[in-house]
Specification:
This is 1-acylglycerol-3-phosphate O-acyltransferase. The protein has 281 residues and is an alpha/beta fold. Helix content is 47%, strand content 11%. The chain is built from ten helices and five strands.
Length: 281
Amino acid sequence: MDSESRQLMGKENALLLCNHRSDIDWLIGFALAQRSGCLGSSLAIMKKELKYLPSGLKQLENSPLPFWLALFVEGTRFTPDKLLAAQAFAASRGLPIPKNVLIPRTKGIVCVVENIRSFTPAIYDCTYSVKKGDTPPTMLRLFKGQSSSVKLQIQRLKMEDLPHTPNEIAEWCKDLFISKDAMLERYNTTDVFSDAELQDLGRSKKSIFVVLCWTCLLGFLLYEFFKSTKLLSTWEGILCTVLFFVVVTLVMELLIHATQSERSTRMNLPTQDPLRQKLLQ
């Protein structure tokens, strides 16, 4: 992103629009918010939260801190099956056929823009990708300590420049994702993500300090717990403790697997659908 926009991040109310590629896009956004100093006032609109709009949006006007509001307008995570369904839908409606994004669902963004534009000066247009051939980040990889390299471009747009009617806002959002699709296709074919300059977000020493404090506190409490209960003084207690941690680990892994994008709702077209056969060629 450009340096001027970087200086404004965390100092102004903003709506974040990003393509939804992996299981932990939200975590990447929170890490960005933390390094911009506005993690405590960052929110995300996902799935069931949409039914509480617009009443919840009005409350943001009185936020004591600059907030970020993230909205994944594709409505679901990107998978090959969902891309195929999106391509078939686009072909049937005479729309540009996407290759790297899904077709945005515009009712949510229309509602959000209409309710927050008076007190939100900026939209951060975020485009996220992983280099072709690299493993995308997942929650399971995160817990295993396996890193992933991601690319993120942020373009600051002025809210005042957006159109005002619902239909025009919807068309603006669709055009935005057509541009994202072209950018991602360029990256997949040339390894050039964009011409924007790289910005060093740095690492917060405060976060490391907080993690160390919590680690020491929890470690001390755990030590005192085992000391007072004498749970590790017998073979039965040791066995129960080991079994407890094994069960907790297995349950966490099952829950993480269940949330992966590959296991999300499938959106398959009928096998004999001519549009499907054409798109598979």
